[in-house]
Amino acid sequence: MKRLIQGAVLASSIIASSFTALAQTDGGTLVYLAQPEPPTLASYVSTSGPIGLVAPKIYEGLFDYDTEGKMIPVLAKSVDVSADGKTVTFTLQDGVVWHDGTPFTSADVKFSVMEVLSKVHPRGPNSFREVESIDTPDDTTAVFHLKNPAPYMLRALSGYESPMVPKHLLEGTDIKSADLANNPIGTGPYKFTEWKKGQYIRLDKNEDYWKEGLPHVERVVARFIPDASTRTAAMENGEVLYTGYNGIPNIDAVRLRDRDDISVTTDGYSMINPMALLEFNTKEGPFTDPAVRRAISNAIDRQFMIDTIFFGYGKPASSALSSSFAATDLYKPMPNYPAAGDVEAAKKILDDAGYKPDGDGVRMKAILDVIPYGEDWRRAGEYLKQALGDIGIEIELRYEDVPTWLKRVYHNYDFVMNLNYFYQLPDPVLGVHRHYGTDQIRQGTHFVNSSRYSNPKLDALLDAGAKEPDAAKRSAIYEDVQEILAEDMPVVNLFEMQFLTVYNTKLKGVYGSAMGPYGSFSEGWLEE
């Protein structure tokens, strides 16, 4: 594997050189949309979507991935995996410094993985679950010792997923509340300069960046524009040049894609595997009975949501796992996931479970907390209110800002049902296990098991799936996982999402990463 990754170094340098040759001049300001405003820039603590739009320009990972999933060296210039898969050796770049001038070393890698990502990151405890220890024989070598082989770990090393953080600034602090959260210091192409709350975050070029000749752009500004029509207007008149994750609502994106100066793409999300879903409180409230949750799944017209709200971008969910995992034979379609919905079947499930409608046709009442990420989600909430009303579940919608919503769902468990989306990522261990494992009931940690669903049989299967090297046996394990979840339904998956990136064609060089808008923008430049 070491030879392969070193080859990628050469490819990466060629790409960088080609961008430099094409750019007429360095400089300029890249203004893009971050929607909504991030609650923090502590990407090592929270994976809230807006954070990912800013933090990876500041923090870097050991590797990036191109749109075909190939590993591209970043802070690690090579990796070597032993024959038994239990020793993984990273050779780090020379001459990298943090934005405060302190050298970046293997000690930072060890600290980032063992003391930060494995403990407080939402997905890190799964990504690095097999890492027993890390040796640092010198400043540019980090040797990971694993209990069991963990090939999925090599898919979780981007600056978005596993940011390397400065040991000298975090060691000895309460990592979740450290000052670094709002005054970040990384090794990336851009330095944090200013956060004007409610307006923008400004990042300036890192003049001491370790990649020679990069970045090209002098300043990067992430703007926050709450109103959707104003965001669209800003894109149309060139005030902003880029936005991802449906920052421009689909209803406007399908119109803008016909312009000569604006393009729309679904590329750049291949490592994300996003899934829209409903999460239920399984411990208290009206949805503790799996029968009710199954009825809700049966009542929803997933194809209608895709066609009407998201303008055809998406695919109906048909299991707890995305159909993308069919490529590794892990996905199986399951019952209780009718693409067009089956209202009569849903009513029968509720009738059989003893939930009879009153004189007004109401069986139960509940509040649906809607993820505060834009107008498309509001419309989805309105549809779900109607769909659940059709089977006698009277819904009140609740909208809040991002910090309040995160606190309600993941800190206080003060909800009964929320509309949300999760990234299933390239392997179930990385993106799916955190949703269902008992060990992932981690109060105060975002985007993990807030349903507080706990099933010892499922826990054993998840543990086995993470360790099983035989493909056929692993496939059988995940079929059992999906069967249990189709019956218990602590989470109802709605549809496999297709995010849109909308950009001005004068912006070049930011489209080669599988992380898309969560990339570093280090090779971006502006055409005169």
From TrEMBL:
Family matches, as SUPFAM superfamilies: Periplasmic binding protein-like II (SSF53850)
Major site of localization recorded for this protein: periplasm
A cellular component term, taken from the record's GO annotations: ATP-binding cassette (ABC) transporter complex
GO BP, sorted A to Z: peptide transport
Family: Belongs to the bacterial solute-binding protein 5 family.
GO molecular function: peptide transmembrane transporter activity
InterPro entries documented for this protein: Peptide/Ni-bd, SBP_5, SBP_5_dom
Protein species of origin: Hwanghaeella grinnelliae
Signal peptide: 1-23
PANTHER family: D,D-DIPEPTIDE-BINDING PERIPLASMIC PROTEIN DDPA-RELATED, PERIPLASMIC BINDING COMPONENT OF ABC TRANSPORTER
Domain annotation Solute-binding protein family: ranges: 70-437
Transmembrane segments: none
Entry keywords, A to Z: Signal
Pfam families, per the entry: SBP_bac_5 (PF00496)
The name this protein goes by in its record: ABC transporter substrate-binding protein
Protein's cellular compartments: Periplasm
